[in-house]
Amino acid sequence: MEIKSSKSKKVKFSTFSQFYLPSSNLPAPINAGPDPQTKAGNLIIGGLLKIGQYSSAPTGSTGALYYDTTANEFKGYKSTGWASLGGTSPVSSVFGRTGAVTAASGDYSVGNITGAAPLASPTFTGSVTMPGTGIWNSSGNVGIGTTGPTVKLDVKGTATVPPTSGTTSGGIFRIDEGNNAVLDFGGNPNSPYGAWIQSTNKTTLAVNYPLVLNPNGGNVGIWKTNPGTALDVAGTVTATQFVGGGAGITGVPKGTLSCLTKTCSFPYQGPGIYGSCTVTCDTGYVSTGCESSFSTTMTYFIDSPANSCKCDNYDSHAGSNLAIGVTCYARCCTLQ
User: Fold this and answer.
1) Are residues 224 and 234 in contact, defined by beta-carbon separation less than 8 angstroms?
2) In this structure, are residues 74 and 67 in contact, taking their beta carbons and an 8 Å threshold?
3) Over 231-298, what HEC string results?
4) Does residue 304 register a pLDDT over 80?
5) pLDDT by residue (tens digit) across 127-164?
6) CA atoms of 140 and 150, how far apart (whole Å)
7) Taking the mean position of all CA atoms in its chain, how far away is CA 116?
8) Is residue 144 part of a domain?
9) Is the pLDDT of residue 218 over 90?
10) Domain enclosing residue 94, as ranges
11) Is residue 14 part of a domain?
């Protein structure tokens, strides 16, 4: 319909079919101009959405997005300014991280990232995968079980006595060579505390394996930073036994060998009756030999446990009744 005025000006009215009307309210018409516009409620687009492209950062506000044609990446505005959302820096200061993530295959996988924004120190919960060869925090420290690592790799756990059975390790850190043999590291919860290392089988901790130090050569020092021999100890060594003839031992201080004989005895008890006694050298003395007095009509045995002599005697002639006893002698010596 048209209305024409006396000055030849027209006013035109158009009508629309109901089929062209939206199914719900339209708060405001879409503006093709530069002025900002607000849409109440969700906006669902069935096709592609193309956002603004700029070669330098425009004026922004929180929640704004644009594509940086210089850096070839999307950027978003978050309180203090623009930050990368993708492109060559897949994880950026939007998540509290600066710099690019690099991996051999060009991708990365990170579990859940938690913490208050901005995440200057991200906390990862879940699996963290870095394919290929990479560098993790080359200028700082990495902590497992601790939020304040003080060395390059700081692992914190609970001190427990190493278990002697089962499959549950009491260690804090483990090296697994892939064939059931593992090397566990842990802490001792009991006085005098300290730490422990155990080479064992992860499928049954009752099985223990050797712990090899410097298998290709080199010296081991205890209380020494410059060991000069295979085992160089700056202190006192306690051992229950040394194996070998000792022909090559040098540096042993000279002294006077002092020896004494200790005895024990038991009387003859009668035909076929067994008897025994044990004599032990005093602390600081070492048993160097055992002897026994006996009758030709009797049989005796000498069993020498650690630093002791034990004499066993029984009558091999049943029916004899010789009043013969046995004395056991232990030769005990010390270096003075």
Assistant:
1) yes
2) yes
3) EEECCCCCCCCCCCCCCCCCCCCCCCEEEEEEEEEECCCCCCCCEEEEEECCCCCEEEEEEEECCCCE
4) no
5) 666 656 666 666 788 888 888 889 988 999 999 999 99
6) 9
7) 28
8) no
9) yes
10) 49-134
11) no
